[in-house]
Amino acid sequence: xxxxxxxxxxxxxxxxxxxxxxxxxxxxxxxxxxxxxxxxxxxxxxxxxxxxxxxxxxxxxxxxxxxxxxxxxxxxxxxxxxxxxxxxxxxxxxxxxxxxxxxxxxxxxxxxxxxxxxxxxxxxxxxxxxxxxxxxxxxxxxxxxxxxxxxxxxxxxxxxxxxxxxxxxxxxxxxxxxxxxxxxxxxxxxxxxxxxxxxxxxxxxxxxxxxxxxxxxxxxxxxxxxxxxxxxxxxxxxxxxxxxxxxxxxxxxxxxxxxxxxxxxxxxxxxxxxxxxxxxxxxxxxxxxxxxxxxxxxxxxxxxxxxxxxxxxxxxxxxxxxxxxxxxxxxxxxxxxxxxxxxxxxxxxxxxxxxxxxxxxxxxxxxxxxxxxxxxxxxxxxxxxxxxxxxxxxxxxxxxxxxxxxxxxxxxxxxxxxxxxxxxxxxxxxxxxxxxxxxxxxxxxxxxxxxxxxx
Length: 455
Fold this sequence. Notes:
single chain; 2 domains; mainly alpha; 455 residues
């Protein structure tokens, strides 16, 4: 046995060590790291390439428009997350028939929702003044209206097709699901590179290239999996049962409201910054967000397998595994905070290497975003546990409260502190969540949760 084979054997033993559920998560985490590492590298290349293609202002417009329409992705009434829990629960019980019914019903409901939404958008779009919405030059009115149609149409297709990622993730195979983003990013990079060589900066071409490559990937992947490994769960009209929609929506509606609140709490920054300071200021914020967001991507890779793993463990009453896993994840989040602080210390140097002199990121933005991701990483461990066991009612109320407060607070702080003030609002509100999530987890795991703490 040569050295290479011995090392491979050692790695396999390490991956398979311990509880089968933990070993499966470990394998998915390793594979996801490799996939996401490639994805991050592509993303880092894509940003400066895109900015050079259309300039910082137009890139800011593209980001803002994408954010607005991306919000609509949450309008699945929480069905995606509802399906994730119900599908994982069905697999834990070995009920493959009901799992297929849940899949088919979710596809049917989402298709109806997006068809109605698409029809309404096409009726309303001619009356929308995108130049005012995006605070863009008046001469771009026709261009932005067409761009909105392109982005929304691609979103409508992706809205339904991306359910395959929910199925794979619920089956504790998130690494496979993350491949879709990698392929989409790689194709997008290739498209933008070709555009830089064949055309001058054109926002419409940019929209077509970046919006429809993910659609192609999701369409191809769905056909592949539903005709292969997941054939037994393939959506079918004869397996649609709208009576189960209540079961899906019971938990799904809670996730839906939480998602809407998340939009207000985390995704309105682009709009507020654009309105208060102009589209060009969205770009340095987005650059810094992507930079510090690397740690949240890494932590998401680690946490993703555990949502459905917690669901399975909870329904099998495996509290020993849950306690042990939460202790390890808690320590990992503390290590993540150390990495974020290191990233902050070298941020100015990193930005110069990444985007050169095209964009300058103020240190205030870096500090506030570092604080945001520290809170985010710390909170994620407990939120994933609570989501996995379906105890989301307190999260629902907290999210609604944050949704109401965030925009006026962000505007208030933004007018007094600049762009960093806009971002500080999310730090404050998300920081409050780190208190009650820990308390709720301890109550649930110690079987002391009653009332809203148990829901």
